[in-house]
Amino acid sequence: MGATARFTCRLSETVQHYSLNWYKLGDDKQPKLLDLGKRKYSPTMLNATTFEIKISDLELNDSGTYFCGLICPSLKLTESNRANLTVTEKQLEAGLPSEETKPGLPSEEREDHGEILLAVIGVGLFLVLPVLCYYLFNLIQRRQEEEKLENENAPLEEGPPAVSVFTVDYGVLEFRAADNAQRAPQERFASDQTEYATIIFPPEKPVAAKGGKKTKKPKNCPSRAEPH
């Protein structure tokens, strides 16, 4: 399959007016004209009496019997000898193993390789996990310290201003002087317990009169005074 086949047709003599066709016998043993318009058929005239047809990209259904036919002006058909074409699947070259026949490792060796691979993976995980845990622990510790510093350095939030509450205490102040001043003076009445005292003033010296002016006599002082 995929190869190229060539058929050659030779005439015994030169013919001036003719028509050359290529045929293939069908399943019913009847000749069928090839469709030379297809790309897989390439007819060629080598010389005046030799013709060739090339069939490329052979497939299994291209197997069959081929021949050429010459039609003269008298409408006489002259057929050439018939050639058989058998197309088979492409055979692998000798010495090249196919995918199915490629040599492989025995099953026991494959199992050993699998166990070794699992052991290597287990040892790797055993070595990597402690390092990973240590790294995560340090990362968490560092994060907590940073959050602590941020909280300490953060400004305190000011609450709402406090409302001053004033307490008024009432008291009664007594001012005796003012009270006495506001009160109307009470009438004083003499009582039987009134004590009397006699005050004696020394006599005044007489003053000489000037300019014929008369001197005034001193008024008599009261003989008694009331204590206040």
From TrEMBL:
So which domain of life are we looking at? Eukaryota
Q: Which PROSITE patterns match?
A: IG_LIKE (PS50835)
A Gene Ontology term for the protein's cellular component: external side of plasma membrane
Question: Has the keyword Transmembrane helix been applied to this entry?
Answer: yes
**Which lineage is the organism of this entry classified under, starting from the top rank?**
Eukaryota, Metazoa, Chordata, Craniata, Vertebrata
InterPro entries cross-referenced by the UniProt entry? Ig-like_dom (IPR007110), Ig-like_dom_sf (IPR036179), Ig-like_fold (IPR013783), Ig_V-set (IPR013106), PDCD1 (IPR042379)
The protein, known as: Cell death 1
PANTHER family tied to this protein: PROGRAMMED CELL DEATH PROTEIN 1
Question: Which keywords fit this entry according to its UniProt record?
Answer: Membrane, Transmembrane, Transmembrane helix
GO terms of biological process kind? negative regulation of immune response; positive regulation of T cell apoptotic process
User: Which spans of this chain does the record mark as coiled coil?
Assistant: none
Which positions fall inside the Ig-like domain? 1-68
Region Disordered: start and end of each range? 203-228
Sequence intervals crossing the membrane:
116-137
The residues the entry assigns to the signal sequence are none
